Protein backbone atom coordinates (compact mmCIF):
# COMPACT_ATOMS: atom_id res chain seq x y z
CA UNK A 1 0.00 0.00 0.00
CA UNK A 2 1.06 3.57 -0.66
CA UNK A 3 0.79 6.36 1.90
CA UNK A 4 -0.54 9.76 0.82
CA UNK A 5 2.97 11.11 1.29
CA UNK A 6 4.39 8.46 -1.06
CA UNK A 7 1.80 9.26 -3.71
CA UNK A 8 2.31 13.03 -3.44
CA UNK A 9 6.07 12.61 -3.76
CA UNK A 10 5.70 10.35 -6.81
CA UNK A 11 3.24 12.73 -8.44
CA UNK A 12 5.60 15.66 -7.92
CA UNK A 13 8.54 13.73 -9.36
CA UNK A 14 6.57 12.80 -12.48
CA UNK A 15 5.34 16.37 -12.99
CA UNK A 16 8.90 17.68 -12.68
CA UNK A 17 10.12 15.09 -15.18
CA UNK A 18 7.36 16.03 -17.63
CA UNK A 19 8.70 19.59 -17.71
CA UNK A 20 12.17 18.44 -18.78
CA UNK A 21 13.20 19.00 -22.38
CA UNK A 22 15.11 15.71 -22.52
CA UNK A 23 15.26 12.61 -20.33
CA UNK A 24 18.26 10.65 -19.11
CA UNK A 25 18.26 6.82 -19.21
CA UNK A 26 17.91 6.79 -15.43
CA UNK A 27 14.85 9.04 -15.57
CA UNK A 28 13.33 6.89 -18.29
CA UNK A 29 13.80 3.85 -16.07
CA UNK A 30 12.11 5.57 -13.13
CA UNK A 31 8.95 6.37 -15.11
CA UNK A 32 9.08 3.33 -17.39
CA UNK A 33 10.14 3.07 -21.00
CA UNK A 34 6.60 2.45 -22.23
CA UNK A 35 5.38 5.71 -20.61
CA UNK A 36 8.39 7.63 -21.92
CA UNK A 37 7.87 6.31 -25.46
CA UNK A 38 4.20 7.22 -25.24
CA UNK A 39 5.07 10.77 -24.17
CA UNK A 40 7.32 11.09 -27.22
CA UNK A 41 4.58 9.80 -29.54
CA UNK A 42 2.08 12.18 -27.91
CA UNK A 43 4.37 15.15 -28.48
CA UNK A 44 4.79 14.15 -32.14
CA UNK A 45 1.00 13.93 -32.54
CA UNK A 46 0.70 17.70 -31.87
CA UNK A 47 -2.38 17.30 -29.66
CA UNK A 48 -3.99 20.69 -28.92
CA UNK A 49 -2.83 21.98 -25.52
CA UNK A 50 -6.34 23.18 -24.76
CA UNK A 51 -7.86 19.71 -25.20
CA UNK A 52 -9.50 18.86 -21.88
CA UNK A 53 -11.76 16.01 -22.98
CA UNK A 54 -11.55 13.18 -25.48
CA UNK A 55 -13.25 13.67 -28.85
CA UNK A 56 -16.64 11.95 -29.14
CA UNK A 57 -17.19 9.66 -32.13
CA UNK A 58 -19.89 7.31 -33.40
CA UNK A 59 -19.33 3.77 -32.11
CA UNK A 60 -22.55 2.10 -33.31
CA UNK A 61 -20.53 -0.31 -35.50
CA UNK A 62 -19.47 -2.06 -32.28
CA UNK A 63 -22.98 -3.38 -31.63
CA UNK A 64 -23.46 -7.04 -32.53
CA UNK A 65 -19.80 -8.10 -32.67
CA UNK A 66 -18.26 -10.82 -30.52
CA UNK A 67 -17.16 -8.55 -27.67
CA UNK A 68 -20.48 -6.68 -27.58
CA UNK A 69 -22.38 -9.95 -27.26
CA UNK A 70 -20.11 -11.13 -24.45
CA UNK A 71 -20.59 -7.85 -22.55
CA UNK A 72 -24.35 -8.42 -22.52
CA UNK A 73 -23.69 -11.62 -20.58
CA UNK A 74 -21.44 -10.11 -17.91
CA UNK A 75 -22.36 -6.42 -17.68
CA UNK A 76 -24.16 -6.84 -14.34
CA UNK A 77 -21.02 -8.32 -12.78
CA UNK A 78 -18.83 -5.57 -14.25
CA UNK A 79 -21.19 -2.83 -13.01
CA UNK A 80 -20.97 -4.35 -9.55
CA UNK A 81 -17.14 -4.16 -9.69
CA UNK A 82 -17.23 -0.47 -10.65
CA UNK A 83 -19.74 0.50 -7.97
CA UNK A 84 -18.16 -1.48 -5.14
CA UNK A 85 -14.66 -0.21 -5.91
CA UNK A 86 -15.67 3.48 -6.31
CA UNK A 87 -14.16 3.43 -9.80
CA UNK A 88 -15.21 3.83 -13.41
CA UNK A 89 -14.89 0.76 -15.60
CA UNK A 90 -14.57 1.22 -19.36
CA UNK A 91 -14.35 -1.17 -22.28
CA UNK A 92 -12.52 0.11 -25.37
CA UNK A 93 -12.38 -1.33 -28.87
CA UNK A 94 -9.13 -2.08 -30.72
CA UNK A 95 -8.74 1.61 -31.56
CA UNK A 96 -9.14 2.84 -27.94
CA UNK A 97 -12.66 4.19 -28.48
CA UNK A 98 -14.81 3.50 -25.42
CA UNK A 99 -17.82 1.33 -26.24
CA UNK A 100 -19.22 0.61 -22.74
CA UNK A 101 -18.83 2.10 -19.26
CA UNK A 102 -20.07 1.64 -15.73
CA UNK A 103 -19.25 4.30 -13.15
CA UNK A 104 -19.56 4.57 -9.39
CA UNK A 105 -21.33 7.59 -7.94
CA UNK A 106 -17.94 9.01 -6.93
CA UNK A 107 -16.51 8.91 -10.48
CA UNK A 108 -19.58 9.49 -12.67
CA UNK A 109 -19.34 13.28 -12.98
CA UNK A 110 -15.57 13.26 -13.49
CA UNK A 111 -15.87 10.61 -16.20
CA UNK A 112 -18.52 12.60 -18.06
CA UNK A 113 -16.46 15.80 -17.83
CA UNK A 114 -13.48 14.32 -19.72
CA UNK A 115 -15.64 12.15 -22.03
CA UNK A 116 -14.54 8.91 -20.40
CA UNK A 117 -17.87 7.60 -21.67
CA UNK A 118 -19.19 5.54 -24.56
CA UNK A 119 -17.97 7.17 -27.79
CA UNK A 120 -14.92 8.80 -26.18
CA UNK A 121 -11.89 8.40 -28.42
CA UNK A 122 -8.88 7.67 -26.18
CA UNK A 123 -6.27 6.86 -28.80
CA UNK A 124 -2.79 8.35 -28.33
CA UNK A 125 -3.12 10.58 -31.37
CA UNK A 126 -6.32 12.06 -29.88
CA UNK A 127 -5.52 12.55 -26.17
CA UNK A 128 -1.93 11.37 -25.71
CA UNK A 129 -0.64 8.96 -23.08
CA UNK A 130 -3.40 6.99 -21.33
CA UNK A 131 -3.89 3.45 -20.07
CA UNK A 132 -6.33 2.21 -22.73
CA UNK A 133 -4.10 3.16 -25.65
CA UNK A 134 -0.91 2.05 -23.91
CA UNK A 135 -2.28 -1.39 -23.02
CA UNK A 136 -3.40 -1.94 -26.62
CA UNK A 137 -0.04 -0.72 -27.92
CA UNK A 138 2.00 -3.05 -25.71
CA UNK A 139 -0.59 -5.87 -25.42
CA UNK A 140 0.20 -5.89 -21.71
CA UNK A 141 -1.40 -4.75 -18.47
CA UNK A 142 -0.37 -1.25 -17.44
CA UNK A 143 -0.92 1.55 -14.96
CA UNK A 144 -0.86 5.25 -15.87
CA UNK A 145 -0.59 7.39 -12.76
CA UNK A 146 -1.56 11.05 -12.38
CA UNK A 147 0.59 13.33 -14.57
CA UNK A 148 1.93 10.37 -16.53
CA UNK A 149 -1.25 11.11 -18.50
CA UNK A 150 -0.59 13.54 -21.31
CA UNK A 151 -3.90 15.40 -20.99
CA UNK A 152 -3.92 17.67 -17.93
CA UNK A 153 -7.61 17.14 -17.17
CA UNK A 154 -6.89 13.56 -16.03
CA UNK A 155 -3.80 14.31 -13.95
CA UNK A 156 -5.95 13.63 -10.87
CA UNK A 157 -6.65 10.09 -12.13
CA UNK A 158 -4.91 6.75 -11.96
CA UNK A 159 -5.89 4.18 -14.58
CA UNK A 160 -5.27 0.45 -14.87
CA UNK A 161 -5.82 -1.37 -18.16
CA UNK A 162 -5.33 -4.78 -19.71
CA UNK A 163 -6.06 -6.19 -23.20
CA UNK A 164 -9.09 -8.36 -23.93
CA UNK A 165 -7.94 -11.35 -25.98
CA UNK A 166 -10.24 -13.85 -27.71
CA UNK A 167 -9.69 -17.17 -25.87
CA UNK A 168 -10.26 -19.16 -29.07
CA UNK A 169 -8.44 -17.21 -31.79
CA UNK A 170 -5.96 -15.27 -29.59
CA UNK A 171 -6.94 -12.12 -31.50
CA UNK A 172 -7.03 -8.77 -29.70
CA UNK A 173 -10.67 -7.72 -29.22
CA UNK A 174 -10.29 -4.59 -27.12
CA UNK A 175 -9.22 -3.33 -23.72
CA UNK A 176 -10.70 -3.00 -20.22
CA UNK A 177 -9.83 -0.07 -17.95
CA UNK A 178 -10.45 0.68 -14.27
CA UNK A 179 -9.92 4.29 -13.20
CA UNK A 180 -10.12 6.24 -9.95
CA UNK A 181 -8.53 9.32 -8.36
CA UNK A 182 -4.76 9.32 -7.90
CA UNK A 183 -5.00 9.38 -4.10
CA UNK A 184 -6.66 5.94 -4.25
CA UNK A 185 -3.80 4.35 -6.20
CA UNK A 186 -3.24 0.76 -5.09
CA UNK A 187 -0.78 -1.93 -6.16
CA UNK A 188 -3.74 -4.28 -6.56
CA UNK A 189 -5.27 -2.11 -9.30
CA UNK A 190 -3.70 -4.07 -12.13
CA UNK A 191 -4.85 -7.37 -10.60
CA UNK A 192 -8.38 -5.96 -10.35
CA UNK A 193 -8.54 -4.97 -14.00
CA UNK A 194 -7.09 -8.35 -15.03
CA UNK A 195 -9.91 -9.95 -13.05
CA UNK A 196 -12.39 -7.90 -15.10
CA UNK A 197 -10.76 -9.16 -18.30
CA UNK A 198 -11.12 -12.75 -17.07
CA UNK A 199 -14.84 -12.14 -16.42
CA UNK A 200 -15.21 -11.02 -20.04
CA UNK A 201 -13.20 -13.98 -21.33
CA UNK A 202 -15.47 -16.38 -19.42
CA UNK A 203 -18.47 -14.74 -21.10
CA UNK A 204 -16.74 -15.11 -24.47
CA UNK A 205 -16.24 -18.83 -23.87
CA UNK A 206 -19.87 -19.30 -22.83
CA UNK A 207 -21.28 -17.56 -25.89
CA UNK A 208 -18.95 -19.07 -28.44
CA UNK A 209 -20.58 -22.46 -28.72
CA UNK A 210 -21.30 -23.28 -32.37
CA UNK A 211 -18.74 -20.72 -33.40
CA UNK A 212 -16.50 -20.50 -36.46
CA UNK A 213 -13.24 -18.58 -36.71
CA UNK A 214 -11.61 -18.30 -40.13
CA UNK A 215 -7.99 -17.31 -40.78
CA UNK A 216 -7.14 -16.42 -44.39
CA UNK A 217 -3.99 -14.28 -44.13
CA UNK A 218 -0.80 -16.33 -44.69
CA UNK A 219 -2.20 -19.57 -43.23
CA UNK A 220 -5.67 -20.85 -44.18
CA UNK A 221 -7.42 -22.34 -41.17
CA UNK A 222 -10.93 -22.80 -39.82
CA UNK A 223 -11.63 -23.30 -36.12
CA UNK A 224 -15.04 -24.76 -35.24
CA UNK A 225 -15.74 -24.57 -31.51
CA UNK A 226 -12.02 -24.27 -30.93
CA UNK A 227 -11.03 -27.30 -33.02
CA UNK A 228 -9.30 -27.17 -36.41
CA UNK A 229 -11.40 -28.42 -39.34
CA UNK A 230 -9.62 -30.39 -42.09
CA UNK A 231 -10.93 -28.89 -45.34
CA UNK A 232 -10.12 -29.08 -49.03
CA UNK A 233 -9.02 -25.79 -50.65
CA UNK A 234 -12.46 -25.52 -52.34
CA UNK A 235 -14.30 -26.05 -49.07
CA UNK A 236 -12.20 -23.34 -47.44
CA UNK A 237 -13.01 -20.95 -50.30
CA UNK A 238 -16.73 -21.77 -49.96
CA UNK A 239 -16.69 -20.98 -46.25
CA UNK A 240 -14.81 -17.74 -46.88
CA UNK A 241 -17.35 -16.66 -49.52
CA UNK A 242 -20.26 -17.46 -47.18
CA UNK A 243 -18.54 -15.55 -44.35
CA UNK A 244 -18.37 -12.51 -46.64
CA UNK A 245 -22.03 -13.00 -47.66
CA UNK A 246 -23.90 -13.65 -44.39
CA UNK A 247 -27.25 -13.26 -46.17
CA UNK A 248 -26.43 -16.46 -48.10
CA UNK A 249 -26.18 -17.53 -51.74
CA UNK A 250 -28.16 -19.87 -53.96
CA UNK A 251 -26.35 -22.66 -55.81
CA UNK A 252 -25.95 -20.77 -59.11
CA UNK A 253 -24.45 -17.64 -57.52
CA UNK A 254 -22.16 -19.67 -55.30
CA UNK A 255 -20.94 -21.65 -58.32
CA UNK A 256 -20.23 -18.45 -60.22
CA UNK A 257 -18.47 -16.84 -57.24
CA UNK A 258 -16.32 -19.93 -56.68
CA UNK A 259 -15.50 -21.13 -60.21
CA UNK A 260 -16.28 -18.25 -62.55
CA UNK A 261 -16.01 -19.46 -66.15
CA UNK A 262 -14.24 -22.72 -65.27
CA UNK A 263 -15.97 -25.86 -66.49
CA UNK A 264 -16.97 -27.40 -63.18
CA UNK A 265 -20.29 -29.23 -62.82
CA UNK A 266 -22.99 -28.30 -60.34
CA UNK A 267 -22.73 -31.87 -59.03
CA UNK A 268 -19.15 -31.22 -57.90
CA UNK A 269 -20.24 -28.18 -55.91
CA UNK A 270 -23.18 -30.08 -54.39
CA UNK A 271 -20.78 -32.80 -53.24
CA UNK A 272 -18.54 -30.19 -51.58
CA UNK A 273 -21.56 -28.69 -49.81
CA UNK A 274 -22.71 -32.11 -48.59
CA UNK A 275 -19.28 -32.82 -47.08
CA UNK A 276 -19.20 -29.36 -45.49
CA UNK A 277 -22.61 -29.94 -43.89
CA UNK A 278 -21.32 -33.14 -42.31
CA UNK A 279 -18.22 -31.34 -40.98
CA UNK A 280 -20.23 -28.46 -39.53
CA UNK A 281 -22.80 -30.63 -37.80
CA UNK A 282 -25.83 -28.89 -39.26
CA UNK A 283 -24.42 -25.37 -39.07
CA UNK A 284 -24.66 -25.00 -42.87
CA UNK A 285 -28.06 -23.83 -44.05
CA UNK A 286 -29.53 -24.25 -47.54
CA UNK A 287 -31.92 -22.32 -49.82
CA UNK A 288 -29.89 -20.16 -49.68
CA UNK A 289 -26.60 -21.66 -48.57
CA UNK A 290 -25.40 -19.82 -45.45
CA UNK A 291 -23.40 -20.35 -42.29
CA UNK A 292 -25.63 -20.73 -39.23
CA UNK A 293 -22.87 -20.65 -36.61
CA UNK A 294 -21.46 -17.42 -35.21
CA UNK A 295 -18.73 -16.37 -37.66
CA UNK A 296 -15.59 -14.34 -36.96
CA UNK A 297 -12.62 -14.02 -39.31
CA UNK A 298 -9.29 -12.21 -39.44
CA UNK A 299 -10.19 -10.67 -42.81
CA UNK A 300 -13.57 -9.44 -41.51
CA UNK A 301 -11.85 -7.92 -38.47
CA UNK A 302 -9.30 -6.23 -40.75
CA UNK A 303 -12.11 -4.78 -42.85
CA UNK A 304 -13.92 -3.53 -39.73
CA UNK A 305 -10.69 -1.96 -38.46
CA UNK A 306 -10.28 -0.08 -41.75
CA UNK A 307 -13.92 1.04 -41.60
CA UNK A 308 -13.20 2.51 -38.15
CA UNK A 309 -9.92 4.12 -39.29
CA UNK A 310 -7.76 1.80 -37.14
CA UNK A 311 -4.81 1.17 -39.48
CA UNK A 312 -2.55 -0.33 -36.80
CA UNK A 313 -5.18 -2.95 -35.93
CA UNK A 314 -5.77 -3.75 -39.61
CA UNK A 315 -2.05 -4.19 -40.30
CA UNK A 316 -1.62 -6.33 -37.18
CA UNK A 317 -4.14 -8.75 -38.68
CA UNK A 318 -2.73 -8.53 -42.22
CA UNK A 319 0.17 -10.97 -41.80
CA UNK A 320 0.25 -12.03 -45.45
CA UNK A 321 -1.71 -12.10 -48.70
CA UNK A 322 -5.38 -13.02 -48.43
CA UNK A 323 -5.81 -16.46 -50.07
CA UNK A 324 -2.82 -16.00 -52.37
CA UNK A 325 -3.57 -19.14 -54.45
CA UNK A 326 -7.31 -18.72 -54.91
CA UNK A 327 -8.79 -18.64 -58.42
CA UNK A 328 -12.24 -17.66 -57.22
CA UNK A 329 -13.23 -14.45 -59.07
CA UNK A 330 -15.28 -13.30 -56.07
CA UNK A 331 -12.43 -13.77 -53.59
CA UNK A 332 -9.83 -12.27 -55.97
CA UNK A 333 -12.00 -9.17 -56.38
CA UNK A 334 -12.49 -8.86 -52.61
CA UNK A 335 -8.74 -9.25 -52.04
CA UNK A 336 -7.97 -6.50 -54.60
CA UNK A 337 -10.44 -4.19 -52.88
CA UNK A 338 -8.98 -4.86 -49.43
CA UNK A 339 -5.39 -4.34 -50.59
CA UNK A 340 -6.38 -1.11 -52.33
CA UNK A 341 -7.99 0.19 -49.12
CA UNK A 342 -4.95 -0.85 -47.06
CA UNK A 343 -2.57 0.86 -49.46
CA UNK A 344 -4.64 4.05 -49.43
CA UNK A 345 -4.61 4.07 -45.61
CA UNK A 346 -0.86 3.43 -45.55
CA UNK A 347 -0.16 6.44 -47.79
CA UNK A 348 -2.18 8.60 -45.38
CA UNK A 349 -0.50 7.19 -42.25
CA UNK A 350 1.73 9.32 -40.02
CA UNK A 351 2.82 6.75 -37.41
CA UNK A 352 6.23 5.46 -38.50
CA UNK A 353 6.33 2.78 -35.77
CA UNK A 354 3.21 1.14 -37.20
CA UNK A 355 4.67 1.09 -40.71
CA UNK A 356 8.03 -0.26 -39.55
CA UNK A 357 6.27 -3.11 -37.74
CA UNK A 358 4.26 -3.85 -40.88
CA UNK A 359 7.40 -4.11 -43.01
CA UNK A 360 8.94 -6.44 -40.44
CA UNK A 361 6.01 -8.84 -40.93
CA UNK A 362 5.41 -8.19 -44.64
CA UNK A 363 8.83 -7.34 -46.17
CA UNK A 364 7.46 -6.83 -49.70
CA UNK A 365 5.01 -4.09 -48.61
CA UNK A 366 6.38 -1.51 -51.06
CA UNK A 367 3.59 0.99 -50.26
CA UNK A 368 4.73 1.08 -46.62
CA UNK A 369 8.36 1.45 -47.76
CA UNK A 370 7.49 4.43 -49.97
CA UNK A 371 5.44 6.07 -47.23
CA UNK A 372 8.24 5.64 -44.68
CA UNK A 373 10.70 7.25 -47.09
CA UNK A 374 8.35 10.25 -47.21
CA UNK A 375 7.96 10.41 -43.43
CA UNK A 376 11.46 9.68 -42.14
CA UNK A 377 14.19 12.35 -42.28
CA UNK A 378 17.15 11.50 -44.52
CA UNK A 379 19.33 11.28 -41.41
CA UNK A 380 17.27 8.43 -39.97
CA UNK A 381 19.24 5.12 -39.84
CA UNK A 382 16.47 3.26 -41.70
CA UNK A 383 16.24 5.76 -44.57
CA UNK A 384 19.13 4.45 -46.67
CA UNK A 385 18.04 0.83 -46.15
CA UNK A 386 14.55 1.71 -47.34
CA UNK A 387 15.88 3.49 -50.43
CA UNK A 388 17.97 0.42 -51.36
CA UNK A 389 14.98 -1.84 -50.77
CA UNK A 390 12.78 0.34 -52.99
CA UNK A 391 15.31 0.23 -55.85
CA UNK A 392 15.90 -3.52 -55.57
TrEMBL record:
A biological process from GO: regulation of DNA-templated transcription
MF terms (GO), sorted A to Z: DNA binding
The protein, known as: OmpR/PhoB-type domain-containing protein
Native source organism of the sequence: Acinetobacter brisouii CIP 110357
Amino acid sequence: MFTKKDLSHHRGAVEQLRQSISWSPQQAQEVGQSIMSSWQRSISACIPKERMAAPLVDNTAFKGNTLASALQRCEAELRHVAQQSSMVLAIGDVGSTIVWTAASREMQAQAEQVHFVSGGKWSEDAVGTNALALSLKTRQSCCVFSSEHYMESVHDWVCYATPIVDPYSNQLLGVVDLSTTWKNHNTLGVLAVERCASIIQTALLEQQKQRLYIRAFSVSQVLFNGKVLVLTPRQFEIMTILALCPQGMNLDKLHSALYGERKVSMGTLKAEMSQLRDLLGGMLGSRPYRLLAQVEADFLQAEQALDAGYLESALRLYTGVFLAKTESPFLCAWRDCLESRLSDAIFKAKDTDTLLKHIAHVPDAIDAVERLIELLPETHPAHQVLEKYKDA
